[in-house]
Amino acid sequence: MDMTFEHSALRRAMVVLVSLNLAGLALLVDPTGADPLYLKSAFGLGTALVLGALIVVAALRFGTRIFVRTRINVFVGALALATLASALQAQSTYVAAFGEQGSYLGVTFTVEMLVVYLAISASFRDVDDWRILFGTIAVAGLLAIGYALARPEFRSIDPDGLGRFLAVLFGGALGFAASPRPDAPRARAAAVALAIVALIAAIGLATRGTLLGFATAVVVAALVDARLHGRDRKTVDSYLLRGLVAVTVVAAIVTVSPLAGRVRDLTRAINVGDRGALAASALAALADRPLLGHGPDNFAAAYPLYRQAGFPSLDASLPTSAPSWPLEIALTIGLVGLVLLVVLLMIAGRSLWLRGLARAPGVAGPILVASAAYLGSGLVSFSSLATEWWPWLAVAAAAAIERGPTDAVAPVRNLPRVVARAIVGVALVAALSGLVAVRAGEDAGRAIHAVADGRPEAAIAAARASVQEDSGRAAHWNVLGLAEELAGDWPAASDAYAAAARRAPYVADYWSSLARSRAHELASGSTEVSAEQVLDAARRAVAADPNSPEPNAVLADVASLTGDYDLALQAAARAVRLAPGRAEYEQLAIAAAIALSDPHAAANTIDELLALHDSAALRVARAKLALETNDRGVARDQANRALQLDPENREARAILDQLGR
C-alpha cells in the first residue's frame, strides 16, 4: 500500500467517485421508468455506499487524521440530527426515509450527502482534485443541455431542476474565469465558453429562477473579482454594468431565435399565481408544525390538507416541493432545520471568502459564485435532486480548504488487502441491490404503457413484478390497480388501490380509485363489499384533500350509486363551488337534485350553484324542480333563461311546450 494518504490510490479513487456521484445526480434520467428520476437516486446512493466503504478503509489504514477538524463539522452534524428528528415524527415515515417519488430527498439522501461531505473534506488536497470534480460536473452539464435540446418533449426533463443546474454551471464558470489563473489560459477560455453555453440554454428555457440565479452570479462574481484583484468601487460598478448588459443582449438574441420557441413549452406548467398558492399552502402547513416540520421530503404528504381553493390548474396535481428553498426546508425539517442550514451556509461562505479566496482562489471563487446562483435561483424554484447536492459540495469545500498546509498523513496500521477488498465488496453488493428498485420503476413504466395501449395481461404482469420488487412505493400499487381495473377484475383492483392508499393515505386519488372500484364490485352483486365501505373510501378521499373538487365529485358519484342522493348533492355542490363552470360536476349535482325526494331542498342548492355559474343545464334542472313543486311561473322563467343561454336546448323547449309556452 502507499506510504502516505496524499499519494495513495485510495484517496484518488475517492476523488473520482465523488465526481461521478455528483455528475450522476445532475445528469442521469431513465425515460423508460415510471419515474425517470429514480435512476439518479439509485446511482447516487449506490456510489455513496462504495464511497463510504473507501472512507472506512482509509480511516482504518491512515487513522482519523485524514479528516479535517473544523466547527463546520458541528453544524453539519446538527443539521443531520435535525433531519433525523424530523423524520421520526414525519407524516409519512417511508417517504421521510426514502423520499417522495419525483424528488427522493429523504433521510437516505442526507446520509448520502454526509458521505460526500466526509469524502471531499478528507480527500480533496490539491487543485488537481478540484479540476477533476469541476471538469466532470461541466461535462455532465453539457450532456444535460444536449439532452434537453434534443428531446425537449420528454417528461424526464425537469425545467426547474435543469434551470437551477444551469445557473450553478454559469456561476461556477464565471467564478473560475474571474479567478487569477495566468498559468491556465485554456481553462479560462473553456470556463467562458461554458458560461456562454449555459446562458444561452438557460435563457431558452426561460425559467424565472434561472435568470435570477444568473443575475445573482454576475453580482457576486464582480465582488469576488474585486477582492482577488483589489478593484476599486468604480471598477466593480463598471464590471457589474458590463455583465448585466451582456446577459440582457444574449437574452434578447436568444428570445427571438428558434431555440427559445423549441424548449420554452417546458416552463409553462405552473404560473405565478399557482406558485403563490403553493407558497400560501406551505406557510399554512408550516404554522401547524413549525419546529420540526412535516418530515424530510414530506411536502406532498402535507400539501393536500392546506391546498388553496380557486386554482383549477393545481386541482389535479400533487406537488412534491415548495416553490422556494426556504419554504421547502422550513416545511419539511422545520424552522430548526432552516436556521441550522442558514447558519451553516453563512459559516461556510465566510470561510470561503476569508480563507478560501486567499488559499485557493481557483476553488473558492467558482464555489462562491455558483452558490450565489444556486441560492438566488432557488428563491423561486422547486427543489430537485439534480441540484440539492450543491450546498453539501460548497460546505465540504469550505471544510477542505480550512485544512491548510499539513504534514503528510502516514499509515497508522497495516490493513490486510483482503480486509479492504471485503469491505468494498460488501458495499458493492449493497449498491447493486438498488438496481432492484430501478427495475421496479421500469416495470411500473411498462405497466403504464400497457394500460394506455389496452393490453391488460401485459400490464398486470409488469405491475405485479414492480410491487414484488419494491412493495413500499404506493405508486406501484396504484399502477397495479389500474391494470387489474383494465382487466375487469374489480376485487383485485380494490385490493391494489387499498394497498396504495395504506402506504400514502394523503393521496386522495388512491382513495377515490378504491371507492370507484368497490362501487363496481357492489354493482356486480358482490356480497364482500357494502355500500358503507364504498362511501367510507370516498369520504377518506375528501378528508385527505378537501379543497380539491375531484374527490368531492367521486363521493357524489358513488353516493348516487348507493342511493344516498342527499350526500351526493352535497358533495357535487361542493365540487361545483370549488371549480365553478365544470360541466361534469354540474351534471352530478343535477342528477342528485332530480333524484332527491325533497325538491325544495334540491331547488335551494341549485339556486346557490346558479349564483356561481349561470348555465343552461342548471336552469333546466331548476325548471324541472319547479314543475315538481307546481311552481309553473318559475319553471317558465328558468326554461326561457336556459334558451337564452343555449337556443338549441331541447329540454328547455320541451318544458315550455309542456307549459303551453
Indicate the topology.
Blueprint: H1 9-27, H2 38-62, H3 71-88, H4 93-98, H5 107-123, H6 127-150, H7 159-178, H8 185-205, H9 208-229, H10 233-255, H11 258-263, H12 272-288, H13 299-302, H14 325-359, H15 361-378, H16 390-402, H17 417-432, H18 434-453, H19 456-469, H20 474-487, H21 490-503, H22 508-523, H23 531-544, H24 549-561, H25 565-578, H26 583-595, H27 599-612, H28 616-628, H29 632-645, H30 650-658
Helix pairs in contact: 1-2, 1-5, 1-6, 2-5, 2-17, 2-18, 3-5, 3-14, 5-16, 6-7, 6-8, 7-8, 7-9, 7-15, 8-10, 9-10, 9-15, 12-14, 14-15, 14-16, 15-16, 18-19, 18-20, 19-20, 20-21, 21-22, 22-23, 22-24, 23-24, 24-25, 24-26, 25-26, 25-27, 26-27, 26-28, 27-28, 28-29, 29-30
Overall description:
It is built from 30 helices and no strands. The chain is 74% helix and 0% strand. The protein has 661 residues and is an all-alpha fold. The protein is elongated. The termini are far apart. It has a domain at 9-426. The longest helix is centred in the middle third of the chain and has 35 residues, at 325-359. Helix 9 (208-229) runs antiparallel to helix 10 (233-255).
Rg calculated over all Cα atoms: 30 Å
Low-confidence stretches: 257-270
Q: Multimeric state of these chains?
A: single chain
Order of helices and strands: HHHHHHHHHHHHHHHHHHHHHHHHHHHHHH
Q: Major beta sheet, specifics? A: none
Strand proportion, as a percent range, falls in under 5%
Query: What characteristic shape results from the CA principal axes?
Result: elongated
